[in-house]
């Protein structure tokens, strides 16, 4: 009985290792050379310090006409951008409204998000998700129309 259990565990481990350790649901990530125009996104995850807080659930992003605009959960922001043929992103200065955030956690999220956007380097698409790569880490957005509130 113990041998059967060990055999089953080793077969599962080999199958997982053959798939890069990501399990059966791994989704290919494709580098983008153009951001999806006229699209709206909601931040669903990030590995950037300060953006894992519950307050980051309010972050929204819209891409239109060579501009990133959105909501930090406290203030509105926008910035122009351009991408070269290799997919490198060049950002223009990020402009934001100046409302005071009553909650310190929202201030921290706003600061971390805007700092990350200023250092935006490239983007990729993973299934229905838009992944923005910055010097500080990754911002993962889901299509706003597909995200349940």
From TrEMBL:
Signal peptide from the UniProt entry: 1-17
Family matches, as InterPro entries: DUF306_Meta_HslJ, HslJ-like_sf, Hsp_HslJ-like
Boundaries of every DUF306 domain copy: 38-140
One Pfam family hit: META
PROSITE patterns found in the cross-reference section: PROKAR_LIPOPROTEIN (PS51257)
Keywords, comma-separated and alphabetical: Signal
The species this protein was found in: Pseudomarimonas arenosa
Protein name: META domain-containing protein
